[in-house]
Design brief:
- By secondary structure, the chain is mainly alpha-helical.
- Helices cover about 75% and strands about 0% of the residues.
- The chain contains 13 helices and two strands; from the N terminus they run αααααββαααααααα.
- α2 packs across α4, α3 runs parallel beside α5 and α12 packs antiparallel against α13.
Length: about 350
């Protein structure tokens, strides 16, 4: 029986979808919005870059430039039609940067051009975006009044002293942006990245995972000569500190992992892998919330309604609560798994 044109079209769409899915790290760790929007577009960019012979690391650098440019656009107020247009351009630039952030990993998996420097650059890419974004948001807030403060008056008493209540953001905006970026964004993304790579390791072993150990990265840094490796050496220094911070923040998982290594070495039973995946899978939705899409949507809304401080407080309060809960649950899971091994 001959296939109709409709059947052929459906088959073609399904095959295309399967090809895109083959470039995912895993279905467990992919977010719904990425699957239906970001990954397919990123995949088309990856195909174009493959035809042009562009290296994945070059795509990552393009992503950094676009993300930094988006930050500059977010420095403009959105209370005029021109300012609103610039903010919309900022949204589009950050979306474009995220497409490239998807494309570099997909391109690496399509071409087999996976490198340690690529892994480090990929992690640094979003940092470049958000350094620009936080700095520009603080500039945008500098001469703006702080909402709800005027109702408190101009002074308050502390230990008999009359101290002024700030009426404008001024340097307080920079303090808020620094707290949001350094105390919230950086550790939240670092922990989310770690949990996803742990999950991928137990799901697929080392294949598809970037579960790197701090001791190995430190050794690699120490053995790498400076001569002819200045860029790689500097990035490796940051990466060894990055992995060390991940391990320091997860003591119960580290105890569990040490016991796994003592008991099984690299031959981890499939039953333990399956049990870890079962317990870890519900936490993957929190790692997705704490990485890009939710954060970006909050940023877009806050900038377009001309209230960028809302985004900074969203990170400080809402995302911090989610991150603390995710961390507590993962450490609790690790304690239980350790007890079962003992």
């Amino acid at each position: 029986m001959k296939k109709t044109e409709k059947d052929k079209s459906a088959t073609s769409v399904q095959q295309s979808s399967n090809v895109v899915a083959s470039t995912y790290k895993s279905a467990d760790t992919e977010e719904w919005f990425d699957i239906v929007f970001n990954r397919p577009i990123g995949y088309q960019w990856a195909l174009l870059f493959r035809r042009l012979g562009v290296h994945p690391n070059t795509v990552t650098v393009f992503s950094m430039i676009l993300g930094a440019a988006a930050g500059v656009m977010f420095s403009f107020d959105a209370d005029t039609s021109c300012g609103l247009l610039l903010n919309i351009i900022g949204v589009l630039l950050l979306m474009w940067a995220n497409f490239y952030d998807s494309a570099d990993g997909q391109l690496a998996r399509l071409t087999g051009q996976k490198t340690q420097l690529g892994r480090i650059l990929d992690g640094a890419g979003a940092d470049v975006w958000y350094i620009s974004i936080y700095f520009c948001l603080a500039l945008r807030l500098f001469d703006k009044p702080i909402p709800f403060i005027s109702s408190l008056g101009t002074e308050f008493s502390l230990f008999g002293l009359q101290l002024p209540i700030p009426q404008q953001w001024a340097w307080w905006g920079f303090a808020l942006a620094a707290a949001s970026g350094l105390l919230c964004h950086t550790p939240q993304c670092r922990l989310s990245d770690y949990y996803r790579n742990i999950h991928l390791f137990f799901l697929n072993a080392k294949n598809g995972s970037e579960f790197d150990r701090a001791a190995a990265q430190k050794k690699k840094y120490e053995e790498m000569p400076w001569k002819g490796n200045y860029v790689n050496k500097i990035f490796q220094w940051f990466y060894k500190n990055y992995t060390a911070a991940q391990e320091k923040s997860t003591p119960h998982f580290q105890a569990f992992w040490q016991k796994v290594q003592e008991t099984y070495g690299n031959d981890i039973p499939q039953s333990l892998r399956d049990e870890f995946r079962r317990r870890s899978l519900p936490l993957m939705k929190y790692t997705n919330i704490l990485t890009f899409n939710t954060r970006a949507f909050a940023l877009y809304i806050a900038c377009l309604i001309d209230q960028p401080w809302i985004y900074l407080l969203f990170e400080l309060i809402v995302l911090t609560i989610i991150c603390r809960y995710m961390h507590w649950q993962h450490e609790r899971m690790s304690r239980k798994l350790l007890a079962s091994l003992k």
